[in-house]
UniProtKB/TrEMBL annotation:
Transmembrane segments: 7-28, 34-51, 254-272
Region: Disordered, residue numbers: 187-248
Domain of life: Archaea
Lineage of the species this protein comes from: Archaea, Methanobacteriati, Methanobacteriota, Stenosarchaea group, Halobacteria
Protein name: DUF11/DUF58 family protein
Domain DUF58: start-end pairs: 444-530
Naturally occurring in which organism (per UniProt): Natrialba magadii (strain ATCC 43099 / DSM 3394 / CCM 3739 / CIP 104546 / IAM 13178 / JCM 8861 / NBRC 102185 / NCIMB 2190 / MS3)
Alphabetized UniProt keyword annotations: Membrane, Transmembrane, Transmembrane helix
Amino acid sequence: MNIRRTPLLLGLLALAIGIAVMVGVLEFTIGESVILGVGLLAVLIGLRALGLRRGLEQSPGSASVEPERRTAVAVPGESFSQSLAAFQRATDGYTVHGRRTIDGLRAAAVAVLTRFNGESVAEATDRLERGSWTDDRIAAAFLSESVELPSRSVVSRLRTAIDGQTTFQRSVRHTVAAIAAVGYRGAGRGTDDTTDGDSGGTTGDDSHTTPEHALPQYVYQHRTSAQTTDDTPRRTTNRSVADTTTRRKRQTGYWTGIGAVALLAIGIGTLAEAPGVVLAGVVGIGYAGFARAFEPPEPALEIERTLSDEEPDPGDEITVQVTLTNTGSRFVPDLRFVDGVPPGLAVTEGSSRLGTALRPGESVGLEYTVTVQRGKHEFDPALALVRDLSRSTERECFVGAETTVVCEPELRPVAAPVPLRTTAASFAGRLTTTEGGSGTTFHSVREYRPNDPLSRIDWNRRAKSGELATLSFHEERAARVVVLVDARKRSFLAPEPDAAHAVDRSVAAAGRIAASLLAEGDTVGLAGIGPVGRDETESAASMSEPCWLAPASGRDHEIRFQELLATHPQFETMPPATESRWLSQLRTIRRRLSAETQIVFLSPLCDSMATTIARRLDARGHAVTVVSPDPTADRTIGHQMAATARRVRRFDLQQVGIPVIDWQPTDSIDEVFARHAAGRGGRR
C-alpha cells in the first residue's frame, strides 16, 4: 500500500509543534485579528467542502452497476406524442392543423373508423363533428366543436380533485379509450386474421403520459473473443490477468463530510473563543488527515471462470464459478468485485458480486446461476474496485476472461402447418396451388384421357353411369421460402421492460418454422433486416453485412440455419445502439430472391416501415405472410394508442392481400398456427 509522505510529515510536524506549545517548550502570541481571520477562513473552507460533497459523483461500485438483470427494452407507446404521430399519415384525405393532441386524436379516430367501420373519410369526419362516433359523451365533446361537454356530478368533481387530474387529461383519457374500443371491436371484420387474442378496450390508468424508462445497461469497455476447451463434462475454464490500461483512480468522498464539519467546528470555536469546540474540530482534522495519507494499492488480479455448460438449450440454467486470485505482492484491504454477466443473461440464484480483502497469493471464489436465452453471449471483463484502508480513494480496473456461451434456438417443427399462401404455379410437390393435378385435396372431375393412372379414375361414376372420368386434385409443389426477421432497432419492443422482446420471439419462431418446412421437404432460407453491430463506433462497412442464407434443404443446411440464428450479430438479444439503413438491405435481399420464393416476414409491425417492407416484397411478386409477435400493452393511454396504431397497420396489410398472423405474448407459436389452420383449413 502506498503512503503519501508529504501529508503525513506535515501532520506529524503540526502535531509536534502543538505538543511543544502545550508543554511550554515553544511560546508565541497571536493577535485577535489573526484569530478572527483564521476562524473565518476555516468556516469558509468548511462550507466549500460541504458544497463539493453535495456534487460528488456516485461511485460505480454502487447500484449503478446491475449486471444481474437482462437489458431492458422499450414498451410501445412510452411516449404519448409519438403514438399520436403514427396516425397523422394513416389516412389519406385527412390532414391535421397543428393543435397537436386534439388533432392527433381526431386523426386516430378517423383512421379506426375508416378501417374497422368501413366509412369514408368524409363520413368519419362528419360523425366526429356530430359526436355520434362513440357513446362516451366526454370523448365525443372533446373531438367536436359543436358538442357540449356533459355536466359532471358532485362525486365526479370530488374524485377529480382528489386525483389531481385536469379536465383536459380526463378528456384525453376518455377519448383514447373510445378510439381503442373502436379498434378492438371491429378489427376482425373483413380481414384474414383468425388469431385475434386482444382483449377489449380499457381506460387504463389516468396518467396523461408515461415517462421514458431509464434502461439499466451494464456495458463494459472491452469485449473479448470466444475461447473454448474440450473439457469433460462440458465445463469451460478461462483465465486472464487484470488489464492495466483500464485503471483509473478517483476520490470516494467517504471522509469529505468529516473534514468539512471539523473545519466548521474549528472556525466557530475560534470565533466564539470556545477551546472545547476547537479541540473537537482538531480531532476531526486528524481523521481527515488519515484519509489523505494512503493510496489504494496497484492491483494484480487474476480470475478463473468455469461454466457448467457452454452450449445449453434456451431456458436452461448454468452454474458459473469464478475464482479471484491476488497475484501481486501487496495486501488488498478492500476489494469490490462484480463479474461481467452478459446483458442477455439474468442471475437467478446466488450473486455475481463479492466484497473481500486479499493477501498476496490468496484466492477467493463465488458461484451463481444464470438462465440462458438463445444467442451468443460473451462475458464482459469483470469490474474490480480496490480501496485503501481509509476508503477515501479507490482504483478501478477490469479483469478480462474470454468466456462465451452459445445457445442455439431449437429447430423443432411446429405442431400445426406453417401458413404459406396459395400460388397459381403448377409445379409438382407439396405447396398447394390453384391448378388441378396430382395431390391429396380434391379439385374437380374431368373426362378420362388415355394413360390416366388407375388410382385417379372415378370408379363410383363408372359403376353408376358406365362412363370413365378422372379425378383431379389441387396441384402441389415443394415450397421455396425465405424466413425474414425484422431485427431493426424499432423492433426491440416488449409488453414489459424485462420481458422477451419481439426480436427474441421472432428468432425463436424462425427456427421452428424452418424445422417444419424442412421436415416437409421444402427449401428454406434465412435473412435479416437491421443493424449488424451493437457498438455506436462501428463503421458503416460493418453495418452493411446482414444475414443471408439462400434457400436449400438437408441436414447440413439445417445446422447452418441454426448456427446463424444463434451467432449472427444481427440477431443479438441486446438492442442495437443505432438504426441501420434498412432500405439498402431490402434491395440486396430482393436481388437475391428468385421469382417463386415466398416470404415469411416476422415483425411486430410497430412502425410504418415494417408495413413498407412487406408491401415492397409483395409488389415484386413474392407471396408474403406476416407473423407478428405482439409487444404492445394497455396500461397507459400511450400504450393503448400504440396498440391501436398496430391494429391499423395489420388491417392495411390484410386489405392488400397480405395475411397477418397475430401472435399474443401468452400464446405459443404452436397455438397460433393451430388456430389459423382450424379457421382457414390449414396449408393452402
